[in-house]
Amino acid sequence: MFYIGSLGIIFWILSSFFSLTIETSLIGIGIYGFVMLGMYLFDLMNFDVPKYSIKNYLTVIAINLLMFFIWFLTSWDFWLIVFSILFTAVAILLRTVINIAIYRIKPVTIYGNGELKTNLEESLKKLDGYKYIDYSNDISELESFVEENNIKLLLLGKIKLEEKEIETILKIKLRNTQVMGYLDYMLEIEKKIEVSYINEEWLLNAYGFEILTSKIQNKIKRVFDIGMSIVIGFLTFPIMILAAIIVKLESPGSVIYSQARVGENEKEFLVYKFRSMRQDAEKDGAKWAQKNDPRVTKFGNFMRKTRIDELPQLLNVIRGDMSFIGPRPERMVFIKELEKQIPYYGLRHMVKPGLTGWAQVMYPYGATVEDAKNKLEYDLYYIKCYSLYLDIVILFKTLKTVVFGKGR
Hints:
Layout: H1 2-17, H2 22-41, H3 54-75, H4 79-102, E1 106-112, H5 115-125, E2 130-132, H6 142-148, E3 153-157, H7 163-174, E4 178-180, H8 182-188, H9 200-205, H10 215-250, E5 256-262, E6 268-274, H11 298-306, H12 314-319, E7 323-325, H13 332-341, E8 354-356, H14 358-362, H15 369-385, H16 388-403
Helix pairs in contact: 1-4, 2-3, 3-4, 10-11
């Protein structure tokens, strides 16, 4: 946000300096928005030095020059050439300064062993900015190890600690080393709640879950749902008409496919989608969707990757069966099976299901019980930490999924 705000100020200063007309300035504001959107979609808002290569810099330059060239073609103001060069140069300089200023390698170690330690190690491999230093599970030497290796973050690969462990780790924490428990790490860093290690007491004491009780938040969410449904419905109406025609021409059967799904408080409702499978796809009964599912038509596969098949669900959102963002609705036949195998699976039905959700943008496609468990962990994080800001984040991540065809 600091980077976007800083570039906005620079853009405004340059616009004033070059004395652009009101019409040219208004077009420029739109161009600036597209520049920021393009940089977001291409993951150029990350400020990690190891990831920020020459290719990233060249992409930033290309996006800027392309957008400013379009601006030039609409205005034919030759000062825009100088404007674009200056703005691009400042953008490159600013992000370089930000990289140098904020990027720090943080030494980290894990106290504990077994599955929890393995999970933490696997998570750290995906993160930049951490230098992992392995430690054997010996509490008597932990304090000296942390001091000698200048450990800044100590992760606990144990749920319950003994009295001696608590005393030692508390000393370490009071000496300016950050200590983070396993569940807190998964919540704050991985943005999920690991259902295998929580219990009713944890749920009772956990903060958050305001969406379940706050009338104000629910009213704001409802306004957001209706507003986004109308806007996206209007913008995608031509796409929906074209999709309907192609579905009808590609294979026999109805254009819109309706199916009973489970919503809030486990009430069933009919969800609408563009038909992406053959008409006889479930002649042998309900089946889990699969990756590269042979029942899916060619255009259906494209619709799934770009989420076009979900667009008719805007009607479900307007009707109030669904929210724009929330856990994806599942079929009752699968829910009964999953509730037997996954703890707390029913908690995802405390809120309205969504057209898109945190699990959909954070977890890749999967059609196994383990995949359902992993998605539940992200759904529970969403329910616990819901905010309008989180909805907007999910909206932008979904946009990236649609643009690059990374949907299921």
